[in-house]
Amino acid sequence: MNLNRSVRVRFAPSPTGPLHIGGVRTALYNYLFAKKHHGDFILRIEDTDQNRLVQGAEQYIIDSLRWVGIEPNEGVGFGDGPFASYRQSERKDSYRQYAEKLIQNGFAYYAFDTEEDLENLRTANANAKYDSTTRLKLNNALTLSPEEVDMKLAKQTPYVIRLKIPANEEITFYDEIRGKITVNTLEMDDKVLLKSDGMPTYHLANVCDDYIMKISHVIRGEEWLPSAPLHVLLYRYLGWEELMPKFAHLPLLLKPDGNGKLSKRDGDRLGFPVFPLQWSDPNTHEISSGYKQNGYLPEAVLNMLAFLGWNPGGTKEIYSIEELIEAFSFERISHGGAKFDAEKAKWFNHEYIKSKSNEDLALLLQPLILEKIGSFEMNYIAAVCGLVKDRLVTLNEIMSYTYLFNNPELYTEVNLTKIKTIKENLSLEALGEALHAILEFNPLEIENAFKNFASANSIKMGELMKFLRVSLVGELSGPAIPDLVALIGIEKSLERVGNCYNQL
Ligand code: GLU
Questions:
Q1: In whole angstroms, what separates CA 113 from the centre of its chain?
Q2: Is the CB of 83 under 6 A from ligand 1?
Q3: What is the pLDDT of residues 407-428, one digit of tens each?
Q4: What integer pLDDT is reported at residue 79 of this predicted model?
Q5: Residue nearest to atom 5 of ligand 1 (CA)
Q6: Is 317 helix (H, G, I), strand (E, B) or coil?
Q7: Ligand 1 in contact with 224 (CB < 6 A)?
Q8: How many domains does the chain have?
Q9: Are 362 and 465 in the same domain?
């Protein structure tokens, strides 16, 4: 790719709710592209639709990007840049001049239609758009005399500014993923650029900011593709076509069955998170689960998202962020939608957990263990990690292993019945002596000691193991007994054995 201007990309969410993983993927692709080309990655908050703002959403977006580790180097909540604000509402007044410039050059016009006028237009014909076929029947600067327009403006009659879309013109532009795209203006309508409250619409603010912020590539979801021809016209009419960014519209993220776009509601309905972080709705107080709180590692989430709609080729799937940056290109982004796969998300997480060092994993697990189980030394937690990390799909699954930290709380009647027979042949004292006699306390030696003890006391090895398992774990499953004894030590093992024995 010939990049003759420095790469500056932006992630431009509207804070109308929590950022869903589709949004995180868009941010990720922007980040990867920026890093690959040593460019800038900007976070711009598009909050011009004040009615749809949701309290806490902006902070949630910032926290989410921070958690996954794709931090913009410029923008709201991150590094300072050359612009006074990266929040559009705070630069509200700066957009009007562009709308007025369009009016002066004959590309836009004031429209004074009331809700009722617009309603009438739709009643006459349900498919009617505000466009070249209808605008001359409506209440705007194209049908009113200049004096009437001036008078209305002087009287502060509410108005909007609309773009005057030409009739029957082909607009062609190039999408980095989809190639050449041509749209006829007959399919478009005279979109509002400036609203009656003085706020720019998404279209105006978005195009102005991309130009002002020197954005080189607009990388965004496919749902914005229908807006692209309008944006192309805006660049043209504002005289900015030379510096128009390149467009790359990303494939949609689909529901697991491929039936439609993955929605914010799908997560809890289908049993997997669709949000990076837990979200509590400020109005309904409804809680939606997040990857973080479900025990996912941010690296795993990123790796999983990177592969939803892009593929570097080959069979390797575990890519560090550096490798993703190196391998990323628009050419390998798929055209069709990418089906979300919750099992694959688990697979990635499991792989990342397994590959962590025991010490690193212990650091990650320590807060959860402290909160739910108790306070333990880091070394001990690391040893536990060594024993169980191959079995953990999420960090939270450590909660299935509380017996590695504390004595089992309860021996169920069912399990006790299964091990009762051992009572007549077993001497706890002798078992204690056998364990204390081990010279090198490691799983292999512990296993040997158990074997010798079983044969010396006429106990079947299987029976002894079952008894030990119930005693130590409280259940009939779990890691190998010698490993377990090596981890929790002689005293704790004997304490549990004694507790269980006394209940037989
Ligand atoms: N504010 C738009 C959104 O919420 C941004 C679209 C774009 O990137 O142009 O997704």
A1: 41
A2: no
A3: 998 899 999 999 999 999 999 9
A4: 86
A5: 12
A6: coil
A7: yes
A8: 3
A9: no
Q: Sheet holding 74-75: strands in order across?
A: 74-75, 40-43, 8-11, 217-221, 246-250, 170-175, 179-184
- Residue 127: phi and psi, rounded to 5, are -90, 0
Determine phi and psi for 194, rounding to 5 degrees. -125, 130
Residues of the chain with pLDDT under 50: 1-3
The reported pLDDT for the residue numbered 471 is: 97
Q: Compute, in angstroms, the gap from residue 218 CA to the centroid of ligand 1.
A: 10
Last-in-domain residue among 176, 206, 236: 206
Ligand 1 pocket check for 12: Cβ under 6 Å: yes
The one-letter amino acid at 171: I
- At position 230, the amino acid (one-letter code) is L
**What confidence score (pLDDT) does residue 490 get?**
96
Please indicate, yes or no, whether residues 132 and 200 belong to a single structural domain of this protein. yes
Its pTM surpasses 0.90: yes
| Contact present, 16 and 57 (Cβ < 8 Å) | yes
Residue 26 alpha carbon, nearest atom of ligand 1: 8
Which secondary structure element, helix H or strand E, spans residue 179, and what is its range? strand 179-184
Q: Are residues 397 and 420 in the same domain?
A: no
Q: What is the pLDDT of residues 331-355, one digit of tens each?
A: 999 999 999 999 999 999 999 999 9
Catalytic positions, written as ranges? 264
Which atom of ligand 1 lies at the shortest distance from residue 227's CA?
9
- Cα(278) to centroid(ligand 1), Å: 22
Among the atoms of ligand 1, which is closest to the Cα of residue 11?
Answer: 8
Query: What does the H/E/C string look like for 370-434?
Result: HHHCCCCCHHHHHHHHHHHHHHCCCHHHHHHHHHHCCCCCCCCHHHHHHHHHHHHCCCHHHHHHH
In a domain, 30, yes or no: no
b or e along 287-301 (b: 16 or more beta carbons within 10 Å of the residue's beta carbon)? ebbbbbbbbbbbbbb
AA identity, residue 39:
G
471 close to ligand 1 (CB < 6 Angstrom): no
- Tell me the residue range of the domain where 431 lies: 407-504
State whether the Cα torsion 33-36-40-41 is positive or negative. Answer: positive
**How far is 484 from 489, CA to CA, in rounded Å?**
8
Ligand 1 pocket residue status of 288, Cβ below 6 Å: no
- What distance separates the 2 farthest-apart alpha carbons in the chain? 112
